Amino acid sequence: MDRQLTQAVPLATSAEALRQVADRYAGWGVTTVHQMAHDYRLGDALRAVEAAKPPIKWTIYGWGWPVRSPADAWLDFAPSRQLPSNVRTGGIKWVLDATPIERDALMCADYSDRPGHRGRSNYSDQQLRAILAQGLSRPQQLALHVAGDGEMARLLTTMEKLAPAGRWRAKRVRIEHGDGLTPDLLPLAKRLGVVVVQNPLHVLPDPDETGRPWLINRLGGERARNFQLLRSLVEGGIPLALGSDAFGDVANPFLNMMFAIKYERNPKEALSREQALSAYTAGAAFAEREERRTGRIAVGMAADMALLSQDVLTVPLASLPATRSLLTVVDGQIVHEDPAIEQR
């Protein structure tokens, strides 16, 4: 139904919406967007981005659906098409389980507020093996939504049985969210070379319908402390990228950096400012296998950079979300310029 609705939206409407999004990101100093084409066929998403002519770089990932076989999902990538130089396809995102919010992330133990229920997987063991095997046979990336610790353990052990660790390291599988990557699973995750793309918005201690922090209510205090790790990933040698998993004002990267640096629910897992900035830049480039072209300011790299309105490494933490870009440059071309820059 969702895809039917999006297909009914005129191309010009989708393109205008994407252009506005791109301009907003450029205003924050973002030079590359990773878009998971949720509710869109890959071809439709590509046409909308092409029509939008975004000033920044755009990487689109197709979307795997439980109603489609793994082989059918890859058909979206054939035949190949000529894309604008700043638009590329990444791979396919598969949603292996849901989230703890609705208690459908697959957990190793029962939900604390629903005894006898551990969530569920969206795919059988056979289907999971097919998704992974197809991914290994393709040049594109695999991006896997995994939230529960039970689903994370199932994924990593299946990967280990299916192919040598070296093949997985070369593949560089993206784990979207990776909330259930608990300390006991870190060594296996490191060996398999997975990359975690975490979303700081998810660490907020928002109350649920009972008025208590929802994650503690779902998992209990002890399990909640080892859920949604950040610093432990970096210290455990797991490549980390940060993203918004959102749109609108809350997609502000500096707001999300503040959440990751503050991490009120579990201060021991908070990132340093340098770690958060690296995860949003070099970490994000590594996550999309573009670290040889972008993500750092260095000789031979793409001239993608931003002149920010304040020093994000020293400004008071509460002021971090107010950061804006005075000048955003992509491939050496100015794509955003704040009038305030003339006054400096």
Estimate what percentage of residues fall within beta strands: 15-25%
Strand-pairing-aware structural class:
alpha/beta
The overall number of domains is 1
CATH class: Alpha Beta
The gross shape turns out to be: globular
In total, the number of strands is 10
The quaternary state of the protein chains shown equals: single chain
CATH topology: TIM Barrel
**Low-confidence region ranges:** none
Straight-line distance between termini: 51 Å
The Cα radius of gyration reads 20 Å
The CATH superfamily bears the name Metal-dependent hydrolases
Helix content: 25-40%
The succession of helices and strands, N to C, reads HHEHEHEHEHHEHEHHHEHHHEEE
Task: Please give a structural write-up.
With 344 residues, this protein is α/β, with parallel strands linked by helices. It contains 14 helices and ten strands. Strand 2 (57-63), helix 4 and strand 3 form a beta-alpha-beta unit. Helix 2 crosses helix 3 (42-52) and helix 5 (125-137) packs across helix 6. The longest helix has 18 residues, at 11-28. The relative contact order is 0.11. The mean pLDDT is 93.
